[in-house]
Amino acid sequence: MTPAERARQIDEEEFRHESDQLRARAFAYAEARRKEEAERFKHIRAEADRSYQNRKRKAENPTLPRDRLITFEGVTKQAHEWAKSLDLSHASFVRRCTKFGPEEAIRLGQRKVEHASRTLVTANGERKPLHEWAKQIGITVSGIHRRIRRGMTLEEAVTAPRARRKSSSRNRNRGVVSNLSDLHGTGGGSAAQEISEITFSERAK
Asked: In the chain, N or C: fewer CB atoms in 10 Å?
């Protein structure tokens, strides 16, 4: 091998070595950038998820002060007063206001109250509008609807007494209905039957 050939061989070997080093550095840089981008995307995704969960929480738990004044068709009442007149809990009224707006929430509520007042239910020999049955057992009309959705017959729903909360060990052994929770109107749907009168025969003694 002549000196010139030897020199060319050395140059080629050095070039290959430098190329391998450059290639390795390029791959390492690309991998580092890929990991940085993955971490950045992960952070952005986590922030977006947190923001979504916060918005969802606010939507599920809207706030409306009980003493907020709301005027509907010339009548002004506090929010909790409107809720009571519509046979709703304050929380249910707030959810309706958030979904439909105060005026539409009140209008829809009044329609349901009117429907309940026209629906006569006869149970155990007594005939009353649905809202009077609800008042007698200490729950709302929506509470009766919810009982029916949970599997009660209509007669059971309008006559079963309201379950009491076990607030202390002193009354834990009292005979209360154990499979019913405290019932309040939720405003969700309607189980009222579209008939003017519903009759049950008295239970056999």
From this structure: C
d(CA 145, CA 122): 16
CA-CA distance, 27 to 118, in Å (whole number)? 78
Q: Higher-confidence residue: 164 or 180?
A: 164
Give 110-168 pLDDT, tens digit per residue: 887 777 767 788 888 888 887 788 888 888 777 887 888 888 888 888 888 877 765 54
Q: Are 94 and 100 in contact (CB under 8 A)?
A: no
Q: Under a CB-based contact definition with an 8 Å cutoff, are residues 111 and 100 in contact?
A: no
3-state secondary structure of 154: helix
Is 4 exposed, middle or buried (CB count within 10 Å of its CB: 0-12, 13-18, 19+)? Answer: exposed
Cβ neighbourhood burial of 94 (10 Å; 0-12, 13-18, 19+): buried
pTM: 0.38
Q: How far apart are CA 112 and CA 19, in angstroms?
A: 81
Q: How far apart are CA 91 and CA 108, in angstroms?
A: 16
Neighbours of 180 (CB within 10 A): 18
